[in-house]
Design brief:
By secondary structure, this protein is mostly helical. About 65% of the residues lie in helices and about 0% in strands. The relative contact order is 0.08.
Length: about 180
């Protein structure tokens, strides 16, 4: 970003984290610079790094723009997948992204790599309630024929959601109290 100076360069082990942190700290201005930079470099590793960083966004105000970008066709299929997965894994953007996934699932399946469609239920791996589990199952009841071979991934993701919901019911309040310093 303009006005931000660094006294060292990043090695290849650091740049993905640096891009993600830049996205989280500088928000839309950094997003704009990432999108401009990707037009300058013809490097698939950098493209994936840009997608990873964009997926690490934590600002709900940017979610609609980011998800529209994922569907736009301006990025590669792996990059679209990475962005949506990233937004599903951020607690600040999960609910908004999950609603978007449900509303745009057929279109989403069209922009991700063909071989990844069967694993698409794993998008729900960060969900943690019975109603969310039921919504995931309903999504695949409706659109499962568009993701041939999804059954195993759906079964695994449902189990993960159920385990998370059970842990939340048994220990969620206790864990939150501990981290709030109340124990």
């Amino acid at each position: 970003l303009d006005g931000v100076e660094s006294d060292r360069t990043l090695n290849t082990d650091e740049y993905l984290s640096a891009l993600a942190i830049g996205m989280q700290v500088y928000g839309e201005a950094f997003l704009d610079q990432l999108l401009d930079a990707r037009l300058t470099f013809d490097d698939p590793v950098f493209e994936q790094g840009v997608a990873y960083a964009i997926g690490q966004n934590r600002d709900p105000a940017l979610v609609d723009r980011i998800l529209a970008l994922a569907l736009s066709g301006d990025l590669g299929s792996r990059e679209s997948l990475t962005i949506v997965q990233g937004q599903m894994n951020q607690s600040a953007t999960r609910d908004q992204t999950w609603a978007w996934v449900q509303a745009n699932f057929p279109a989403y399946l069209e922009v991700i790599p063909r071989q990844r469609k069967r694993a698409s239920p794993a998008l729900g791996a960060s969900l943690c309630s019975e109603p969310e589990r039921d919504a995931l199952v309903a999504l695949f009841d409706q659109y499962g024929d568009l993701a041939e071979g999804h059954e195993r991934s759906l079964k695994q993701t449902v189990e993960r959601i159920e385990l998370c919901a059970a842990l939340e019911a048994a220990k969620g309040a206790e864990v939150r109290a501990f981290f709030a310093g109340e124990l």
